[in-house]
Amino acid sequence: MGGHLRLLMQVAFRNLFTSKINLLIGGIIFFGTLLVVVGGALLDSMDDAMSRSIIGSVAGHLQVYSDESKDNLSLYGDWSGEPDLTVLDDFSRLKPVLEKHPNVKTVVPMGTSGAMITSGNTVDLTLARLRDLYKQRAQKGESPALREGIDSVKAHVQQMVALMEQQKDKSRELLSDAAVDPQETEALARARSDAFWNGFEQDPFGSLEFLENRIAPQLPDGDLLDLRYVGTDLDAFQKSFDRMEIVDGQRVPQGKRGMLMSKFFYENFLKLKSALRLDNIKQERDVNHKLIAEDPQLQRWVKENQTQTREILFQLDPIKARIATERLQKALGSQEASLEKLLSAFFTTTDENFDERYQRFYQDLAPLLELYRLRMGDPITITAFTRSGYVQSVNMRVYGTYQFKGLEKSAMAGLINLMDLMSFRDLYGYLTADRKAEIADLQKGSGLREVSRADAEESLFGEGSGNTLVADATPGLIEDSKPFEGGMGALRREDLAARVYSQDEIEKGVALSAAVILKDPEKLQQTLQELKQAGTDAGMKLRVVSWQTAAGFMGQFVLLAKMVLYFAVFIIFVVAIVIINNAMMMATLQRVREVGTMRAIGAQRSFVLSMVLVETVVLGLVFGAGGALLGSGIMAVLNSAGIPAGNEALYFFFSGPRLHPTLSAGNLLAAFVIVLVVSAISTLYPAFLATRVSPLQAMQTDE
Amino acid sequence: MSLKTLLSAAVLTTALLSAPAALALEPAAMTELLATIDDRQRNGGDYKALVYLEQKEKDKTDNVREAFVYRRDADDKLMILFSKPKTEAGKGYLRLDKNLWSYDPNVGKWERRTERERIAGTDSRRADFDESRLAEEFTPSYDGEGKLGKYTAHRMTLKAKDGMDVAYPVVKLWVDKDSSNILKREDYALSGRLMRTALYPRWKKIFSESKKADVWFPEEIRIYDEVEKANSTIILIKSVDLRPLEANLFTKAWLESKSR
Amino acid sequence: MNSGVAQSPIVSISQVTKDYTLGKVVVPALRGVDLQVHPGEFISIAGPSGSGKTTLLNLIGCVDTATAGVVRVAGQDTKQLSERQLTNLRLHTIGFIFQSFNLVSVLSVFQNVEFPLLLQRKLDKVQRRERVMQLLEQVGLAHHAKHRPNELSGGQRQRVAVARALVTRPQLVLADEPTANLDSVTGQNIIDLMKELNQKEGTTFIFSTHDAKVMNHANAVVRLADGKILDRLTPAEATRAMAAGAEAH
Fold first, then answer.
1. N- or C-end of chain C: fewer Cβ atoms within 10 A?
2. What phi and psi values does residue C44 have, to the nearest 5 degrees?
3. Where along chain B do its domains lie?
């Protein structure tokens, strides 16, 4: 018995290195195993890194939300915008239900939503600042500091008007006189006149309205920014999500309203465009090794920097403009007096001078400029369409910027800004019972009849409508002062910004979902089911989903990447099966005499079958082990050295600048199983053929 | 002003006399008809209205508001100041020259808006509240007569004049042949896509001391969104008050003061 | 050894025909052959190429089946046996020596000889070793046990093949032109070896050859021509008859 197998093994081992075809098959198995080991380990490591990034940023291990929601939760947003979720009325009731579970570490309330933020054009913004200063003066009287501020901003406005007139002259040259609105020209002329500025102080608000309504509209509109945000208990969030780190500024003080802006968003949408373009060019050159001379995208950026200098010009008041002119003249060795031309020349960057210009920009120009439209500590106004259809605006202070480690460059994660839950609730605009009643009253008071859209024309104008088109109105007096008595306005605004909310206030109220961090993530599925049950037991209809589901597209992206790679491996092995199959057929044909001899001598068909199979399995094991060994070696090297993320896409997959992949026993086992199965499958047919070899074949002579 | 009024009256008379006779309106006659519509709604002095605004949207509870609309037609000024519900009180819009400003007392900020601004997020536009300027803004062409329920209407297509900033560049009007009131209005995008349909079932007139004539207003406007088919807006003018308004009412400072 | 007629024959063939089909043409290889071989005989089958020698040996060796007629080997009608039983019959009753030696190239001399024993699964390791070494001793290759076939000369290889054929102590050994690929001296040695084993062990040998010198060693020569048995002669008669046949040509 033992001898039998030993013989088979001996034949197999001996054949291993004598047959060239076997070497070919062995090679395929060797590289196949290498691929499965290295590829599998890399994939698992990436999956692991991405999972940790997503779990550690906003998703947590589980997300809990109302089962009455129409859409599914999608933390990173979806193509179709924000999902329609039913609110969790009171987070403070949900929290203890979830926390009771032994595997739950923390529960963090959340809500995602989006809003547009608008910024007027540069002149609008500057005028708004001036208006604020005059309002302060009207309230508190003038102080030397206030006077200085007013004068400085006024000088800045004058500078802007001068720039606008220059540009107007230029466009008159380019186009024609007819294209220029005479009213605009007239307004500009007035704003340039000394008479206007001399008379400014007599009627500052009147003068401001003139500038706001006649001058500012002559500039194109400011941009609209789409702002996605997650409203949450910021303290609990920071404690629970280890991937989050503050980059600029500070965290929002405990219990206060405020926002932490995503670093990615801050850089890409709020930075001075010229500076952003310089940063982008630098990144492409340094990281992706592109050249201005070759890459059209880089050339476009350079071109935009040359032509779009207005953003910088408008920022500089007369003093700073002079300094900037001097510095640029020195840097460029030029006598040019026009700052616009100097800037254009300065931004004419090539691969040779780029690094020097970049450094000089940040050293010479940046200190004169506001590099960002928003400074840490500045308030931001967010206007959102609430769920009830009313528009709601909230002012909040931006305390700092933050990022999620490993997702720094991910646009999807980078668009998430964090705000306190109280502000979120204001913007979300959940209708309380009181407000519902108020609305119903108003609606009843209107006396309007319901008209269905389909037959609106017939019921309003038709013969049977009884409509009287023209009638006399009853003259009435409209009392319009009452509704505004006791308005809150400015006082309330200040109060909100200063107020510190207790943990109770934060938790008692609406949330859209709750992130759950587990003690033992291995038991995720089980805990998921148990929490669902716990919800039902407590009379709450809850939907509990894993982080992968909650991350929506981002979660599926991980899965997708995995599937693509597994599919590639699958294809490679299908090809391998075909090649091995063919090679084995050849090998069998070569050995027809040998097999025939064995059959003649008295070997049964089953013996021949096992001989071929054992041979392939031995082949698979030997070369597979070789491949696995080499693969393990490679992984060990990669693990200690790390693979650098050469470009931004990889940065996302690696969840950081370097991936240190690890090899698990599972990877090796998977490789072995796959290799054995593949070699066995690919040998079945050749082995069957071998059993059909007749002993007669042994009798044939080859000479 | 009085000359203008006189002229309009003459135009009105001509229009009324000639309308039944002519099957197709001459361009001049059409412009006159528009001028009539504009002029009837204009007041020589100030104008104040209490307006109810109701917005219906798919899968959402109706949202309703009350607002005061102030107009000083002589200076082309308009203010919409919301009063109800409480959360909306103090929000407003202010039109000065060609600028449309929006204000929210919760944040104390003014923002520049365009002609396409959906007033308070509804399907209404600034022009629905403002003085009618059809003759000034559009060039009409005649599409023939048509029935609309029990009314016979002139059908016209209006195209925005060059350089006019209007919310919709093409407008189709159904104007009641008997009373010269707008019955129906369709607003089109430049592409020819129908964006909104508005129905005006009831017109009211009120005598103005300053104008020495009636001022007309549509008591009810039903606006149907043709893009988001489920959305619609109703503007209901509950009452109109033509007494003079405070001189400095159309300023940012005045609106701000309402919520201080 | 004496061939007792009373003993039942190890091979008994009666009225056997064998046709090959080559495309549409049916080629008769054997046309009604009767042959009886008794235990201990040392029989040579002679005849020109294409006379049916190999076909006859294949039928006897149970690697091929007759078109008609009965082939009995060790008392069993081969037609009645399954493929499995035929294989077993070959394994336990018959030894094969091939014209081209047909050793398994990747196995050593020892392993090649041991191969049929492993298939038989009758003996344990020690017994196998003893038997194999005894056989290698007999064919004079005990010192080459660990060599690979390609390290041996042709004659040595055929002696390994002889050892392999005999290691199971078969009743019958078949050899198809065992000397065809060897020079005359070496061929002579192989025949001597076979003869020696025939006499010592009493193993029945049937071999085909067209070499008169080889035929001389047989007890009897069965002459085949055109698929029929001409006669069964003594070697001397056969040599004479063949010489006459050659003259006649």
1. C
2. -110, 135
3. 2-44+133-227, 46-128+243-257
CB of A306 within 8 A of CB of A348? yes
Of C176, C181, C222, which is closest to residue C47 (Cα–Cα)?
Answer: C222
Q: List the single best residue of A601, A606, A619 to mutate versus C (max C Cβ within 10 A).
A: A601
Q: Which residue, C219, C218, C222, C217, is CA-closest to C242?
A: C222
Q: Which of A14, A18, A602 sits opposite C87 (nearest CB)?
A: A602
Q: CA of C164 to nearest chain A CA: how many angstroms apart?
A: 9
* C85: nearest CA partner in chain A: A604
Which residues of chain C make contact with A694, given a CB cutoff of 8 A? 63
Give the ipTM of the model, two decimals please. 0.91
Distance CA B121, CA B144 (A): 35
Q: What is the pLDDT of residues A331-381, one digit of tens each?
A: 999 888 889 899 999 999 999 999 999 999 999 999 999 899 888 988 888
A 118-157 → B contacts, CB under 8 A = 118, 120-121, 124, 128, 131
- Supply B113's token pair: 């808006």
Q: For chain B, 260 residues long, give each residue's pLDDT as a single digit of tens.
A: 455 555 565 555 555 545 444 456 788 888 889 999 999 998 878 899 999 999 988 877 888 999 999 999 888 889 999 988 888 888 999 998 888 999 988 888 888 888 788 888 888 999 899 889 999 999 999 988 888 888 999 999 999 998 888 889 999 999 998 888 999 999 999 999 999 999 999 999 998 888 888 899 999 999 999 998 889 999 999 999 888 888 888 988 888 888 76
Using an 8 Å Cβ cutoff, are A482 and B86 in contact? no
Beta strands in A511-562 (DSSP E): 513-518, 542-546
Whether residue A214 and residue B253 make contact (CB cut-off 8 A), yes or no, is no
Chains that touch A (3 or more CB pairs under 8 A): B, C
Please name the CATH architecture into which domain C11-248 falls: 3-Layer(aba) Sandwich (3.40)
**B46-128+243-257: what CATH class?**
mainly beta
Residue B239, min C-alpha distance to chain A (Å): 6
Comparing CA positions, the residue from B77, B19, B37, B1 lying closest to residue B255 is B77
Torsion of CA A191, A195, A199, A200, to 10 degrees: 20
pLDDT, residue B9, reads 56
Helix (H, G, I), strand (E, B) or coil at C232: strand
pLDDT digits (tens, 9 = 90+) for A215-253: 888 887 677 888 899 999 999 999 998 889 999 999 999
Pick from A229, A208, A198: nearest CA to A113: A229
Of A679 and B186, more confident: B186
B66 vs A471, which has greater pLDDT? B66
Chain C residues in contact with A699 (beta carbon < 8 A): 54, 58, 63, 98-99, 176
In this complex, does chain A touch chain B, defined as having at least 3 beta-carbon pairs under 8 Å apart? yes
Which tokens belong to C94? 């018959």
Pairing type for strands A513-518 and A62-66 reads: antiparallel
Q: Are A521 and A61 in contact (CB under 8 A)?
A: yes
Non-local CB neighbours of A648 within 8 Å, separated by 6+ positions: A287, A288, A409
Question: Is C210 in contact with C52 (CB distance < 8 Å)?
Answer: no
Q: Does B112 touch chain A (CB under 8 A)?
A: yes
Query: Mind spelling out the 3-state secondary structure of A63-94?
Result: EEEECCCCCCCCCCCECCECCCCCCECCHHHH
Q: Which candidate in A15, A597, A694 is best for mutational testing of the C interface (most C CBs within 10 A)?
A: A597
Q: What is the pLDDT of residue C173?
A: 93
Measured between CB atoms, does A11 come within 8 Å of chain C?
yes
pLDDT in tens, C5-50: 447 889 999 999 999 888 888 888 899 999 999 999 999 998 888 8
Whether cis (ω within 30° of 0) applies to the bond prior to A220 is: no
